[in-house]
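Usage

Read records sequentially. Each one opens with the input sequence:
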Amino acid sequence: MTKRLVALVLCVLMLTALAACRTDPATSDEPEYKIGIITGTVSQGEEEYQAAHNMAAKYGAKIVTATYPDNFSSETETTIANTVALASDPDVKAIVFVQAVPGTAAAIDKVRETRPDMLFIAGVAAEDPATIASKADIVLLVDEISMGTAMPKKAAEMGAKTFIHYSFARHLSYATIATRRNLIMNTCEELGIAYYDVTAPDPLGDAGVSGAQQFILEDVPRQIEQYGKDTAFFSTNCSMQEPLIRSVLEGGAIYPQQCCPSPYHGYPAALNIDVSGHEGDIQYMLNSVGTVLKEYGQESRMSTWGVAVNMLMIEAGVKYAIEFLEGNTEGRVDEDVLFPIIDKIAKGGTVVSTYEENGVPIDNFYLILCDYYDFSK
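and closes with the structure output:
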């Protein structure tokens, strides 16, 4: 009898211990979700690609990544398929798109056929503003409209007498880029700066990225020879920034900013700066860029923003998605949560405004404007 009683007590103790050790997923405090991030490849957008992997390193299995094709303009079906593949995992509850290239709106539509609950945050939106805003929950874009006046003014401060604007038909069909171009042109006229449009090869065309880059390497010296060193250069395309920076540096011309302002955009490769181990260290990159510019005497003639804006969009998108999925937002669009996230990542100095089309605000489409960084200080 005693032996049976002891055995029974031992069984009860073992069961109690097992119950205490057992983890019940249904009652776990850890939210069960994943966040997808879609970026370009290294060749089209190394900055965003690296930022996505930084998020994966920080948050682990909560982050899953994918890319859109280099020739995204003619391969929208691949962009859609890659987005649907991410959404096929039921644990993926939010997707952050940077850059939100053509095909993003269609990809969102396709996903919502089976996953209407999915949160979509679209950064660097390239499609019609009203269209992408009607599909995504939140849209983020650099304030290209305000840049249209800020950039020529910065160029004037740097001593510019001429402004060269490189672009191509596909980009000029984008509403925000076209509006910015007109503002640059008008502001240059007001400031007494001669403005010239120069048509560059589309990197998605037959010449590809390498052809577009080679054009920049050959054309910038020609423009400097014709108009002098007090010429400011700007290109609307990401893949052109590296050769443009290198050519301007070597020619002693003026470079107010990139298309997507950031110390990481074009500068590291153009100036042969090793970013290994410093992928998220903005101040390290600013200091490194400044050192090289001073060696060439270009610290007052080349600039960027003190914020990696596309990387900011990815990080802000992920952090907002976390707040949303953990029930810390009022609805799907909560400015009281989003704006402080952006400001904290940028360490202040950002202005976030609402995009307006024909005077009518698009309430979920936000424009980000940051200060220029002075490398001479």
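Summary fields computed downstream for this record:
- Residues 1-28 have pLDDT under 50 and may be disordered.
- The chain has 14 helices and ten strands.
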